[in-house]
Amino acid sequence: MKKLLSIALVLCMVLSLGAVSAFADDTVKIGMVTDVGGVNDKSFNQTSWEGLQALAAEDSRFEVNYLESKTDADYQTNINTFIDEEYDLIICVGYMLADATREAAEDNPDQLFAIIDDSSCADLPNVACLMFAQEQASYLVGLVAGSVTESKTVGYVQGMVSDSMNLFGIGYITGVLEACPEATVLQYNANNFGDIAGGSTAAKDMITKGADVIYQAAGGTGIGVINACDEEGIWAIGVDTDQAPLAPDHVITSAMKRVDVASQDISKAVADGSFAAGVHLYDLSNGGVDLAPTRDHIPAEVLEVVEAAKAAIIAGEKTVPTTVADCPAFTLGA
Amino acid sequence: MKKKSFLDSVADSTFIQILISIILGFLVGAIFLMIMGLSVGAAYGRLINSVTSLKGFSYVVVYSVPYIVAGLSVAFSFKTGVFNIGAEGQFVVGSMAACVVSILCPNIPKPLLIPLCFLAAMAAGALWGIIVGFLKTKWGINEVLSMIMFNWIAFYLSNFIAGLPAIKSEGSAEATKNIAANASMLFSKDFIKRVGLCPTANWGILVAIAMMLIVWFIIEKTTLGYELKAVGSNKFAAEYGGINVNRSILTALAISGALGGLAGALQLMGMGSRISIFSSQEGFGFAGIVVALIGVSNPFGVFVSGLFYGALMYGGSKLNLVGAPTQLINVIVGTVVFFIAISVIFKNLNRRRARANRNAEAAIDKRASLQKEDKK
């Protein structure tokens, strides 16, 4: 009996040793390339990097690193640095890296890539395109805006007109008009993601015209929108991350895109050997997009409406339009 | 005559001063690394490793080309008494001009299109310089002030052009279309793979070398260069000597601007292949100022310091991989420039002290001779 026990113990030890060494060999190296916004952009790059850091902290198999791009020409260099260092997965943050990713992916068919917010590389066998159903989250914040507006006038500032950016506006306006059919939606295309002053001016113009809730999908320009709303004391709606900390008293909610979750998922998939190329869609049903957790300012009855709509979308009973044709009130896309 | 002390000879040799400044720069960088609790060996080892392989070195050369030519632009302006802080704007309009030409006329054969793009870039950069020069010579508006403003005009002009339907990328990218294949200076993919160079290896360095020689020739071997230098060292003396000062300033700014514009074209046609819609200034022109300072405005010095700067930029981008912040490079470069500036001050002080000494000796001699005469 004693002998048996000792053999079992020895076996245990050997096996666990084996497990440990297998662990060490299994290091999965994940490299992230930022766009020119840098890693502290309070948006995409930052969220994605925080997601990867959290992953590395909880699972020692992962070794994560990032390279910042200072100019447009750095994308390719940075991607190639990770290729030379034999990283298992290279995550390219943002559609600005689409061309560089395509080129590198075609030249290095054995290297795995993931790109956030771009589907143009979906035809490549080694690139996973992480896409977000931004219209769903925008629809939910639209419901909030339509419900809380007293002047029946709400605003919307967009960073640029493109098919993927238009989804924000289409979802939002659909939501607003569903909650308040007689509402007017003031719309503005800033054509710039980095113009804080311009965002602020646009928002103040809308406030003069009576808007009392403004949603923005415009990166840095949107920060100007939030600042103006904070000064003028009206509601602002954040985007991408929970932007409540920017103006705790006046950001009513945010339409979140869980870039961090997406980065973690694809990293885990590489580690498990289940990496799949093509489009990965993150929507309400898998928690890829949602209202931000900060919801203190939303009245309880409005929150109920939103939760009901969310459940309906997840259940497939309701779909949010994705084309300009289905949302004639959206005028920026024309 | 008094024998030169070691310190005096150090103060006299520009080369040694720069070398010491660079060493001090790395020392300060090391101190920062130690304060942050990071391994100095790992960070600097990484820096050296990443630039010494063939592939790494080819990256360094590719990165250096725009820095060298922008550096020549600023150095040329220093030699001629104006401060071209507008290289940034000239760089931007130059690269945009080359970009527009290559996108609009993609079918011109390579041997014609590339020089045409260069010419367009140089013309745009020269124009950007001449406007500022005109403001200076006509109304006496300080060129530094108007150049800084013209940098922003160039910035927004470039963003405007990049957004035009004929120029903007057809995909979702916020950038121009890629330049025509005929305007690309890249080596062929096969060649790059066979030799093991970096994917953006191109022959821009040859243009940089040619520009270095041309700038040296203009400054040192031509009447034009002599006039420009004369205006640079003393405007009033030059005018008294019969040199048209206003025309000199305009010429200097035009040549300097043309070099700035060419740097933009080289970066575009060698590395970038497209121009993104900027959210912030990319800083190639400002880097040119640093390169010109480290190279003490000497064309050959600028060439070497451009390579040095390119190496820091490329090697520095990889510092993250060993856990060191890439900003360390800014600390090093800033320190180097700081010490070079200090060495200039010391040199001037030294000169002043020497002159004071000479004056004092002369006064003593004079008094002695006067006393002698008195005795007679």
Please characterize this protein's 3D structure.
The complex is a heterodimer of chains A (334) and B (376). Chain A is α/β, with parallel strands linked by helices. Chain A folds into two domains: 26-132, 3-Layer(aba) Sandwich (Rossmann fold); 134-255 and 290-326, 3-Layer(aba) Sandwich (Rossmann fold). Helices cover 44% and strands 20% of the residues of chain A. Chain A is built from ten helices and twelve strands. In chain A, the strands form two sheets. In chain A, strands 2-1-3-4-5-11 form a six-stranded parallel beta sheet, sandwiched between helices. In chain A, strands 7-6-8-9-10-12 form a six-stranded mixed beta sheet, sandwiched between helices. In chain A, helix 2 (44-58) links the parallel strand 1 and strand 2. In chain A, helix 2 packs across helix 9 (259-272). The model of chain A is unreliable at 11-24 (pLDDT under 50). With 376 residues, chain B is mainly α. Chain B has a single domain (37-324), classed as ABC transporter involved in vitamin B12 uptake, BtuC (Orthogonal Bundle). Chain B has 15 helices and no strands. In chain B, helix 4 packs parallel to helix 9, helix 4 packs across helix 14 and helix 10 crosses helix 12. The two termini of chain B are 30 Å apart.
Keyword list:
heterodimer, A: alpha/beta, 2 domains, six-stranded mixed sheet, 10 helices, B: 376 residues, mainly alpha, ABC transporter involved in vitamin B12 uptake, BtuC, 75% helix, globular
Q: Radius of gyration of chain A in whole Å, from Cα?
A: 23 Å
In percent, how much strand structure appears in the residues of chain A? 15-25%
Q: Count every helix of chain A, treating DSSP H or I runs of 4 or more residues as helices.
A: 10
Low-confidence stretches of chain A: 11-24
The share of residues in helices of chain B is over 70%
Helix content of chain A: 40-55%
Helix and strand composition category of chain A: alpha/beta
Q: Assembly type of the shown chains?
A: heterodimer
| Major sheet strand order of chain A | 2-1-3-4-5-11
What's the name of the CATH homologous superfamily of the largest domain in chain A? Response regulator
Question: What pattern of helices and strands is seen along the backbone of chain A?
Answer: HEHEHEHEEHEHEHEHEEHEEH
Q: How many structural domains does the protein architecture of chain B include?
A: 1
Q: How would a crystallographer describe the biggest sheet of chain A?
A: 6 strands, parallel
CATH class of the largest domain in chain A, named: Alpha Beta
List the chains of the largest interface with their residue counts: A-B, 34 and 29 residues
Low-confidence stretches of chain B: none
Number of helices of chain B: 15
Rg of chain B: 24 Å
- Mean pLDDT of chain A equals 88
- One letter per element, helices H and strands E, the order of chain B comes to HHHHHHHHHHHHHHH
CATH architecture of chain B: Orthogonal Bundle
